[in-house]
Structures
1.
Amino acid sequence: MSVTSSRSSPVPLPRHRGCPFDPPEEYAGLREEGRATPLAFPDGKAGWLLTRYEDVQALLADERFSADRRRASSPVRSLPIREDDSRRVGSFLGMDPPEHTRYRRLLARWFTVRRIRGLLPDIEEIVTSRLDAMERGGPPADLVAAFARPVPSLVICQLLGVPYEDRADFQRWTFTLFGIDREEAELFAARDALWEYMRELVAAKRRRPDDALLSGLVHGADTAADADAPLTDDELTGVGLLLLVAGHETTANMLGLGTYALLSHPGQAALVRERPELADHAVEELLRYLTIAQFGTIRTAREDVGIAGVRVRAGETVVGSLAAANRDPSHFTGPDDLDVTRDAGQHLAFGHGMHQCLGQHLARMEMRTAFPALLRRFPALRLAVPPDQVPLRDDMLVYGVHRLPVTWDR
Amino acid sequence: MRVRVDRDRCRGAGRCVLAAPEVFDQSEDDGLVVVVDDRPPPALHERARLAARLCPNGVIATVDSATLDEDGRGTG
């Protein structure tokens, strides 16, 4: 039976995890059975799921597919998407060229490898001060509240020029926004609150410039004075929001879940603790192994497209599973093993194509600093609860742990 | 080996700079790729090819000298 003829029985996106570190078990079977799986979306529409590395990579590099969320069905939410959404301005992750190109080109210079390397002393200082505070306050501690969440929030606040004192608000709104079972009214309220917050911050930067990124964008100072018009305050608000949300939420979850994974693999944790030269490999491997963007990425065909052995019709949504692709045995040897000595640099955890993560080097720098420093400060770090009592974020767009109770020897 | 980039399609992800910093850099002005050594020595060929493979936008081409004509264009 061909994949196409099985179209009459689309399945919902697998969501149930057997092991906290592995994608849902169904993915392995689907990847074996065929290249494209007919997918049933909560809004009643049908589309496709791709699970093989080569196919997911091809999807994300193919400009016949749109990243515009307004066209797409969500694989985990049934919410209608508002066509005339003025609050979409600036959110370039869900845009296509030429709109996307304009934003990306204004921002790329702030996130180059060299520029991010320049932040290393600041990142080291932030990591050290959080470890000091954690040591003073425990044991025990919730590693998420004490370390995994504050480190990336402090870093992105400093980079953007956002007051860290405001974190309780923007972390709470982001938490709501990333929950998959939220009511529409809740989601829009959180999104509007974030918007108003950032809109005021943009206005404040216009009045009182500083040296940080947001102010730099507001004043267009030393930007690549090309033909692009400067960003409007609404556009700056959308850009600022995307950078703030992406900057604190994703890395926080990698630090929390990554620590949980390392504590559950003591041999791997020992390698990270004792062999500093493995830090880069360890970060790439944790990104691959954990792939916290658990339900995406999502693309919509602009025209009829042949991909992964099927014909996707114009308007249909295709989900490229980064998590499944990163466990594809035809691309990674022993893909279900966590092995911090392997070179996993070709993983798709940051996506692929034009939307590949803008902040990837910042995320890498934070992780390669934070994991070894944490494990060296607390060589006997361990869970303070049985593993099955660690609350998992399988109800969130970005996977991770809600809390990670840990203890250590004083 | 000759290294070429299609700068118009670059989005400044910077994977190439991580893979082969002796060959690629990012511009201070726009964050996009700059080739610092378009004829890298043999010791760097493997990493230049890795950079081409890792580039999320397929911007980088590496052409082995054996297939270059006298103008430096690839014939294969």
2.
Amino acid sequence: MEYHLGIPKLDKVQGGLNIMLIGPPMCGKEIFVNNIVHAGLMNGEGIILVSTREHGEGVLKWFEQSELDIEKDRERFGIVDCVSRTLGMDVSDTQNIKRASSPVDLTGIGVKISQFFEQFYMRARIQKTRLIINSLSTMLMYSNLQTIFRFLHVFTGRIKVADAIGIYVIESGMHDEQTIATLKQLVDGMIEIKEENDRFFIRARGLGSKLTEWLEYEIEGANIVIKGD
Amino acid sequence: MLKTGIPKLDDFMGGEVPPGRSLVYYVQPGVEGDVFGMQTLYHHLMQGGKGIYVTISSAPYTVREHFNEFGWDVGKFEDRFIIVDAYSALVGADSDERYVVSDPENIGALDETLSKAMEELGSGLVVFEPLSTLMDLCGEEETLEYVKKWKKLHMTYNNVFVCNFTAWPYAEETLKQIKEELFDAVVTIGGIAERVIFGQYFGVSKVDWAEVKKRSMLFKVFRPTGIRVYIPKILVTGAYHSGKSTFIHAISSRAVSVDRLGTTVAMDHGRIDHKGFAADIFGTPGQERFDPILKVLGGEAMGVFLVLDSSKPMDFVRAKQMLETARAHGLPYVIVANKQDLPDALSVDELRERMKVPKSVPIVPTVATEKKGVFEAFETLIDMITEVK
């Protein structure tokens, strides 16, 4: 199965792929994630977003504020909210937001991911699903590398079996090389972002046949614009 | 002695868990297994017991909320229910609990707090929220050593020690110790997966105090109410106008029928929720012209209700024929002797004689219009489906 990421020039990937999205702070990773979510929803896919940085309602609000209409696709958008309960917010689960106890609660997060997979595939008969974890860096603040590795090991395996795609966001510069190298073992490809002289560049490797060149991009509102395109 | 409150599970473990014993719910990642420990604790509190819940990955108020989701108000047991908070310090949060572990990454600190809580509580039940999380924080070997220590301590206090354990890919030796050696009883909770996990089951893989009854049960988790043994398909068949649809509506918490001019033309469907068991039941049309769909409806059924109009012996042959057409022979089945309120209804013994049904096949008298006998029929069939041979 083929998936479209919604990122210009790095668009097509095959099902069963696990991808690490790595970049420095303030480079617009959030926008990349939301574009990946939006592209999936527009393609009729099921989306599972594990959010450790923004509570569920906040994620939905971004789309509203960005005038990206996902209202009619909401039932295919499952958010595992790891923030609300940690902050002590008095909120219940909704049809598309399930709350995990905390980013430490990997058991609970895992259950909620599985429930969304089941909901999309078995009940809604949706063949294509993308899982996005935003971000591994937050999870690594609460749990050690080995723990996150084990967690990811299980779910990267499930992505392959389900012919889905998995995208795992991580901050560069926040973790040591060994951490990144360990987690890289579990993925098939990378989307890398770098900053040079206040300009941002993106490239991909492992997604298609070869490494792409560094492409300069800018964020315009909710859009990613590749310069010189 | 302690009962888990999980339907069928106590039967599989010799009736109950003796004091001083340990039990692990060994859960495949992604399967909703944490409810097992919670349901066991709540059931124990409801029976008048005392309990400790050790939380490692959730704030205490989240734990209470989680219990409440299932309709389990643990607040009413505050005099004999303690939460040992091994979470708050981990995220730098304040805690209102009396027993707070100052440094959850130091297993010695947890041990110290837990010992104090146990001293206050005396004999009861201690439930550990994922032992795996403790292992992640404090290391596999160290955690296993402390589990051994706690087991001895629980024997001294005559406590039952229950752990939820998510079986992430730890070292093989660690998993082996958890699954085979450390605990007196092991309940495996897993998922049935194809591309995704679409069903969940539990089964006992080890019991030290009784003979293991190796049988897996499908289950579903309901909010409220908790774990229900789940039977995905029970077939209801029988001759035209025997009362199948009435039976399904009488026994179900919700049901729909595809009918025309008062008779079923496609199927009936109902969802039963009764005494810890949930089941989906499917009714066949009774008219012969619909026989081709009987095979389809009968596929993958786990048990059958054969509904008879007790006042119409001329239809009995047709009823038996339908059982065969639905390819339901060989499955556990119960004969529902319906319409017992009619003046010319045959008794159970007369029916058995007329139909030449062996004594091993239960016949349950019912009046579906008044819901009389319908749940007895359900309980009888459930016993047959879940029986350990």
